[in-house]
């Protein structure tokens, strides 16, 4: 492999073949047996998993995913239910707006595509709640197409292996997208395997902390390791706090509404958090986001429309 430079998109075509085979071979031997990777998962199963896995560990997703697909095995099954049922079934996965977005996508798939998740990348991207990453992931993992799939794990692998830095930028950059496109194998099947394999490598080996370089299939050609694994010197990495935040209060309010069999009066919600200003702000945010529906008489429920 040639020496790395600070213009990774230019160097990528030379380095790509040296990355693809060892990472894909490693993946074939070490990939986790996850339900959305099995042939019977189908494109809907892949889409559901991609919504659930955003910012959420696999261990937390697995039981909810299984329950979701058992209840709603097709997009049309979910589309028939009120959006509040999607929020209820989401449980404590966090970021519950994803449940509403997935429900909206199921409605659009049912109405526009006869209930089948579209195969075309542009049509996937046009679905409500589907962004650049999710459209590429579904097209690649469900349909074996050639698209750059850039999640946090892949971005970290490319940052270290190719650009020689410990962590990628806080937000995806144009340079990262160019690099990912340059690294894509030309063959569609190989490209889709590369997308899955590089993601798994970041999840299991090239982790954010305590990376296992001794088990990495591309350790010998990793630019970061060759440089002596220099410490991150860019902008501070964003941390995720939870205790005491509005997110925690929102979660407590939603937990009460998920467990209720009918509308919940304001005094019941007031008991979930001691600080009235923060509690009111969190409840207003849930209403504004469409996750909670206010009713006359100071009652609240999960949304029906």
Annotate the secondary structure layout.
Elements: H1 8-30, H2 42-53, H3 58-71, H4 75-79, H5 83-90, H6 97-112, H7 121-125, H8 132-143, H9 152-163, H10 174-183, H11 188-204, H12 223-226, H13 246-259, E1 264-265, H14 266-270, H15 276-288, E2 293-295, E3 299-301
Helix pairs in contact: 1-10, 1-11, 2-3, 2-8, 5-6, 9-11, 13-15
Per CATH, the architecture of the domain at 35-143 is: Orthogonal Bundle
In terms of DSSP E residues, the strand content is under 5%
Could you state the order of secondary-structure elements as H and E?
HHHHHHHHHHHHHEHHEE
Mean pLDDT: 93
- In CATH, the homologous superfamily of the domain at 35-143 goes by the name Hypothetical protein, domain 2
Q: Strand count, sense and closure of the main sheet? A: 3 strands, antiparallel
CATH fold descriptor of the domain at 35-143: Endonuclease III, domain 1
Parts with pLDDT < 50 across at least 5 consecutive residues: 1-14
**Spatial extent as radius of gyration:** 22 Å
End-to-end separation: 56 Å
The first-level CATH class name of the domain at 35-143: Mainly Alpha
| Structure summary, number of beta strands | 3
Shape: globular
Number of helices: 15
Q: Approximately how much helix is present in the residues?
A: 55-70%
Describe the strand arrangement of the main beta sheet, using strand numbers.
1-3-2
The assigned structural class equals mainly alpha
